[in-house]
From TrEMBL:
Organism domain of life: Eukaryota
U3 small nucleolar RNA-associated protein 6 homolog C-terminal domain location: 276-544
Native organism: Engystomops pustulosus
Protein's name in the database: U3 small nucleolar RNA-associated protein 6 homolog C-terminal domain-containing protein
GO BP term, pick one: maturation of SSU-rRNA from tricistronic rRNA transcript (SSU-rRNA, 5.8S rRNA, LSU-rRNA)
SUPFAM superfamilies: TPR-like (SSF48452)
Family: Belongs to the UTP6 family.
GO cellular component: Pwp2p-containing subcomplex of 90S preribosome; small-subunit processome
Example GO molecular function: snoRNA binding
């Protein structure tokens, strides 16, 4: 059998998928004929088998698209009840020495086990077979959290199904209802076994909470939920996510129907009380768990509640006060995450407290002296307020930030200089920055753009000429000069050719779009020479490397047909 590429195999899968939906298969001879579903599906198996042969001959790391193909093959097998055959093929792949240890095996194969179990449970109505599939899957993937979660969910769905069946039989007054269903199973016995195995193999409060979240979807799991919650508090009492859940639980507790409030004001009062109870739980957690992650969860909760809409001004004010005090407490403890400072600053601006924002940003840059984003935020605020100490703060920022990360600060500074300082001072700053290796690429483009806007076309050409031999460059530098030339009332094709040729010297081996733009310019410009297109095309084919050649050929074909 001749070898096929992965892309060819996937194209075959795509054609098959389209044919399946239409109920016909298109042959290479372009003849169409109607075939039975089984014949189509067998053809799908043939395509998959071709892919399997290819996969076995390659090394791991080239399997990025195989998950979709495996999923499609599994679906094909379900259509003709050949799931066993599907897993035989998958098992062969798994045993291949070339694929052992592949990331693909860890991810996609566990997903295929879940698909198989779901198909058995939902389509074949076989809980026992689905259970066996999950047990086999866990032998191969004992550390798969997703497998345990879906197995746990399936067992609860099985209980729900049996309870519904028993209720139907009871209503029909059939005596067999008691004998058919095990009380242990109806009491979530199997689900408890799965839960116990899951928490023994997969550690962490987040996973524990995911099982609790699944159980909450079933009304009959109150006892199981209490068991999971008790284990959570026992095993992960020092985990911030445990406390976060316990705090938020205060919001979800519902009042009995007779006590449910009717007026909007009463509802707001009760909600305010619940949020206060949540806050107390967080405060209790922080008394013994002073960590950044714990403060992060508390601040996130306060921020979420603050953003919720309410018609109660009292509740709105309570949320605002709580959020501000939480921000301040976390900051005073030195444990407020950097990202939350931006939320705090944004809130202060919303409340028109600019002076407090300035003080806060000063404290934040003292705490995170190497953060470019924090210094940028502080400088932006000082620019907005037209602060007199701006240049001193900027110099301090440059002294503390890593040189190779300072570009955003310099961009901010030149933008400010363009608006507030003299033309001479701005040009002097640009001339300094184009010589700095950490800023030269970006600043050459900005310098050229500013020169054209302020000093005109002739000066821009001189700046371009003075910089064009001073490497390194960015592609945008040449594009900017080309755009400036084309912006003239009577642009000169000779100048454009010069700029294109200069750009091609730097980027011609990897950028097919420059070649295409050059060709289009020769075709569309009043002074262009269409006869130059052939030589340019020939040069492009010779100079471009790797995938860029194919990209150029495809786009050139579109250009010739008028679609580009």
């Amino acid at each position: 059998m001749r070898s096929i590429s992965l892309s060819s195999f996937l194209r075959g899968v795509s054609v098959l998928d389209t044919s399946l939906r239409k109920g016909r298969l298109k042959l290479l001879s372009n003849r169409r004929f109607i075939v039975s579903s089984n014949e189509l599906l067998r053809n799908g198996g043939m395509i998959f088998n071709c892919g399997c042969l290819m996969w076995k001959s390659v090394r791991s790391g080239t399997l990025s698209n195989n998950s979709a193909a495996s999923s499609l093959h599994f679906w094909l097998c379900t259509q003709i009840n050949q799931v066993t055959r599907s897993f035989a093929v998958i098992y062969q792949l798994k045993q291949s020495p070339d694929l052992v240890g592949s990331k693909f095996l860890c991810l996609s194969f566990s997903a295929l086990w879940i698909m198989a179990a779901k198909w058995e449970f939902e389509d074949q109505l076989s809980s026992e077979t689905a259970r066996n599939i999950f047990l086999r899957a866990l032998r191969f993937h004992p550390d798969s959290a997703k497998l345990y979660q879906e197995y746990f969910r399936m067992e609860l769905m099985s209980v729900e199904k049996q309870k519904n069946e028993k209720e139907i039989l009871r209503r029909a007054n059939l005596d067999t209802a008691k004998d058919l269903y095990s009380g242990e199973i109806l009491n979530c016995g199997l689900a408890r076994v799965v839960y116990k195995a899951a928490v023994q193999n997969i550690k962490g409060a987040k996973f524990h909470l995911s099982l609790l979240s699944i159980a909450k979807h079933f009304k009959f799991t109150k006892d199981l939920q209490r068991k999971i919650l008790a284990d959570l508090q026992r095993l992960y009492a020092e985990d911030p996510h445990t406390w976060d859940f316990l705090a938020r639980q205060e919001l979800s507790d519902e009042l009995p129907a007779p006590e449910a409030p009717k007026s909007k004001q009463k509802k707001a009062e009760i909600l305010a009380q619940k949020e206060e109870q949540c806050s107390r739980v967080y405060e209790r957690a922080l008394a013994s768990l002073q960590t950044e992650s714990m403060w992060e969860l508390y601040v996130s909760f306060c921020l979420e509640r603050y953003k919720r809409k309410t018609n109660s001004e009292e509740l709105k004010q309570q949320r605002q006060d709580r959020l501000l005090s939480t921000f301040q407490a976390a900051h005073d403890a030195g444990l407020l995450p950097q990202a939350r400072y931006y939320d705090w600053i944004s809130l202060l601006f919303t409340l028109e407290k600019g002076d407090l924002a300035v003080q806060l940003l000063e404290a934040a840059t003292d705490r995170f002296p190497g953060s470019v984003d924090m210094w940028k935020k502080r400088l932006e605020l000082l620019i907005t307020l037209k602060a007199e100490n701006l240049e001193k703060v900027f110099e301090k920022a440059l002294a503390l930030v890593k040189t190779q990360e300072s570009l955003p600060l310099w961009e901010l500074m030149v933008d400010w200089s363009e608006m507030e300082r003299s033309e001479k001072a701005t040009e002097s700053l640009y001339q300094k920055l184009v010589l700095n290796p950490n800023t030269t690429k970006t600043m050459k483009v900005k310098y050229l753009q500013w020169t054209y806007r302020i000093q005109g076309y002739k000066r821009a050409r001189k700046v371009f000429s003075s910089l064009q031999e001073n490497r390194p460059f960015s592609e945008d530098f040449f594009k900017m000069m080309i755009d400036i030339e084309k912006d003239q009332e009577k642009s000169k094709m000779g100048n454009l050719r010069e700029y294109y040729e200069r750009a091609l010297r730097e980027f011609g081996a990897a950028k097919p779009d420059i070649w295409l733009s050059y060709i289009k310019e020769e075709l569309s410009h009043a002074e262009g020479k269409p006869e130059n297109c052939g030589p340019i095309h020939w040069r492009a084919i010779k100079v471009l490397q790797g995938p860029a050649v194919e990209e150029f050929v495809n786009k050139y074909a579109l250009l010739q047909s008028g679609h580009l």
